[in-house]
Amino acid sequence: MPAPVAPRTLYDKIWDDHVVNQQDDGNTLIYIDRHLVHEVTSPQAFEGLRNAGRPVRRPDCTLATVDHNVPTTSRKNFKNVKSFIEEPESRDQCAALEDNVKEFGLTYFGMSDRRQGIVHIIGPEQGFTLPGTTCVCGDSHTSTHGAFGSIAFGIGTSEVEHVLATQTLLQRKSKNMRITVDGELLDGVTSKDVILHIIGTIGTAGGTGCVIEYAGSVFRGFSMEARMSVCNMSIEAGARAGMVAPDEVTFAYLRGRPLAPKAGEEWDRAEAYWRTLTSDEGAKFDIEVKIRAEDIIPSVTWGTSPQDVVPITGSVPDPASFTDPAKRAGVERSLKYMGLEPNTRMEEIKVDKVFLGSCTNGRIEDLRSAAKVVIAAGPDAKVASHVHAMIVPGSGLVKQQAEAEGLDVVFKRAGFEWREAGCSMCLGMNPDQLAPGERCASTSNRNFEGRQGAGGRTHLVSPAMAAAAAMTGRLTDVRKFLSTSPATTGGTTQLKISSALDFLTDRVEASPAPQPLVDEAGAPLPEAAPTSTAGSNQFTILKGIAAPLHIANVDTDMIIPKQFLKTLKRTGLGNALFHTLRTDPRTGESTDFILNRAPYDKSKIIVCTGANFGCGSSREHAPWSLCDFGIRCVIAPSFAEIFKTNSMQNGLLPISLSEAECKSLAEDAEAGLELEVDLEKNEIRREGGKPAVGFEIEAFRRHCLLNGLDDIGLTLQRVEAIERFEQRRSETWPWLDGFGYGKGGGKIPASAAKKSVKRTDW
Ligand SMILES: CC(C)[C@H](C(=O)O)[C@@H](O)C(=O)O
Ligand code: SF4
C-alpha cells in the first residue's frame, strides 16, 4: 500500500512542484517560472552575465520594464529615453536596461509602450503572473504576485543574475504561517486597512522566516486587486511572501489576458491544476493568527515604521506610556522626525501632499475608490488649497482604463494632478519627491525616514483615505464621506453615497558540521567553482573596531537611501552608507552619527542591539555599501531574510545572537574594544579576557563563505537536473513555456515562439 500523503499547505504544494534538487541539509534548488526585471536592480546582474559569457537561460520566462526612475510628466513629446529623462543617472539606468534587453533578447515594455508600468502591476495585467508558479524580481514587493496563488518573492541583484543564468534559485524552505480574517468588514474599510491592521498587530518582524497564507471570508470576498494590495505588503510584515489560494475570482481575472493560457484545452488543463492549489484539511501551519474583520477601522500610520498603525479615530501615541526604555526612545525618535506631539488626534494632522499610486495601490480599483470619495465631496469640491495632490496610475493600461471611465476628469476637475505611470513618489527616484518637513498622505507601503524625500513625512493610508485627506487638507476618517449626517469634512459639501458597499471597490464586483557537497552522482564538488563578477565573497577571520547601533528595524532605505541606487556598479558606495544619518539633509554637513566619529569611522563590524536589521527593500546596495565602507560583519538579534542572503553573496557575515549577547558585545564596542569574528571556529573573541561568544551559521552558507564559492558556478554544475526539470515542466505545465507577443498582442505558443518571437518596444 502506498504511504498516505500528509496534508500539505498551498505553499508546500507549489514548493514541492518546483524542486530541481534537494540537498540533505535542506538547501534546495528550485525552478523559477516567472522573472520580472526592472532598471534599478538589474544592471550589475547583466554585467555579470556579460563578463562570464553567459546567456539568459529562459528569455521566454522573463519580462522587463522601466518603472522606478521614469518621470511621470506627460510623454506627448517622448522620442526616446536618452532625450526624455533629464536626470543623468536615471537616464543611464533606463538606457542600460534598454541596451541589456536588446543584447540578451528579452521582452521589454519601454516608455512608449502603453503596457509599461510598475513591474508588480504589469505582470498580473498581462497574465504573466499565474497560479502555481514561482515568481521573482529584484524587488521586495514581488510578494504582490502571491495573490494569484504563486510563491512570489523579492531577491537581490546577485540572485537576479543567478536566475537569468540558470532559471533557478538556491533556497531554504520557509515556515508556514496563516492569517485568517473572518467576518464582515465595516463600511469604509478596504484591503489596505486590513493589511495595515495586520502589520500593526503582528509587527514588521511578525512574519520573519514565513510565507503567509491569507485565509478566511474577507480575502475570499476580495477582488484580485484587493488581494494584490494585501500580498504586496507581506514584506512590511517581515514575511518572505504572501499568498491567497486561487479560486473563481482568480480564474475570472485571468481569462483572456494576453499571456494567460489560451481558452480551450490549454486553459482547461491549467484550471484543473490550479483547482488543486489549496491547503489540505489538517495541513500544518507553524504560526496561526486570527483576526476579526469587525475590529478593523480605517487605519493610518503615525510613525516611521509600517507597524506604527492606529485607527484614524485614534491619536499619536505618548512615549511616556511605554515602559520599555528602548521602545520609548524609538517612539520619541519617530515623533521628532514626524514633527508630531504626543496625544494629537490623527484627524487634526494637516497634510501638504497627497500621493495616490505605487504597486500597493496604483490599480484601477484604487483609482475608482478614490474617485468615489472625490465625487462624494460634491461637484464643485476642490482639493484643499494648501494641498498638492497627485495621482499616478500603476501602468499605462491602468491610466487608459481610468480615462475610458472618466476618472481622470473627476480628479483633474477637483485639482489633482493626473500623471504617467511609474513608481513616482513612493520612493522618489524620479523628480517626484517630498521637500524636507513636508507631510504626505500616501497610498504607498513604506513610511521610513526620508522614503519619499529627505526629511519628508509619510502617513500610509488607503486610496479612499488619501482622497479624503486631499479634499479636507488633513488626515480624515473616510467614513465621513459615507455619512448621512451633516458634513463634518472641513467645509466640504458632501453627497450621500447610495450604498456603503458600492463605495468599497475591494469587494468582488458582480463581475553546524558542514555537509560535504556532492554532485548528482555523489561525487564531491570542487572547492572553488568558476566565479561570476561579484567581488570576493570569502570570509574567514575578521578583527577590528565594532560600531554599536541601538536602533530596531534598521531598514535598507536607512542603510542606503534611494539616490544611491542609480549606480550601474557594485562599488563606490562607502560614502552612501547611512547617508541620511551621517549628513544633515538641510545643511549637508556631517553629523555626529557613530560612523562619523573616530574610532568608529574605521569600523569593520556593526553590533546592533535592535531586532530585524536590514528590513524593507531588497536592494543589494545595502551590503555593497557596508562592504565598501569596510564593514564585513553585522551582529544583531535578527535579520530580514533578503538582506541576509544579499550579505552572504558579498562576503558580509550576518550573525544572529540573543538580545542579551548583542547588548553585551555592544558594551565592548562602546568602550572602543576590538572584536575578532572567527567563522572557522564559529566564535567571537573579545579583548580583556572576556569569554568568547559562540554563533551558528547555516552549514552550506558557511562552507560557501569560508571557501569564497560562487552560487552560479555551483548551480551550473547541476545543469542536467535543470534540463530534466524543464522537460517535465513542459509536459506537465505546458502553458508556462515560451511567450512572445503576436500581431494582436496575444501570446505566441511555445513552438512558434521559438522560431519567431515578436519582441516588443525595441
Ligand atoms: C529598488 C528596489 C530594490 C526597492 C525594493 O526592493 O523594494 C524598491 O522597489 C523600493 O520600494 O524600495
Ligand atoms: S514599493 Fe514603490 S518603489 Fe518599490 S516597486 Fe513598489 S512602487 Fe516601486
From TrEMBL:
Per the record, the GO terms for biological process are: L-leucine biosynthetic process
Q: Which UniProt keywords apply?
A: 4Fe-4S, Amino-acid biosynthesis, Branched-chain amino acid biosynthesis, Iron, Iron-sulfur, Leucine biosynthesis, Lyase, Metal-binding
What cofactor does this one take?
[4Fe-4S] cluster
Residue intervals of the Aconitase A/isopropylmalate dehydratase small subunit swivel domain: 537-659
Q: Which residues form the Aconitase/3-isopropylmalate dehydratase large subunit alpha/beta/alpha domain?
A: 12-473
What is this protein's function?
A: Catalyzes the isomerization between 2-isopropylmalate and 3-isopropylmalate, via the formation of 2-isopropylmaleate.
Q: Which PANTHER family match?
A: 3-ISOPROPYLMALATE DEHYDRATASE, HOMOACONITASE, MITOCHONDRIAL-RELATED
Give the protein's recorded name.
Answer: 3-isopropylmalate dehydratase
Protein's organism: Botryobasidium botryosum (strain FD-172 SS1)
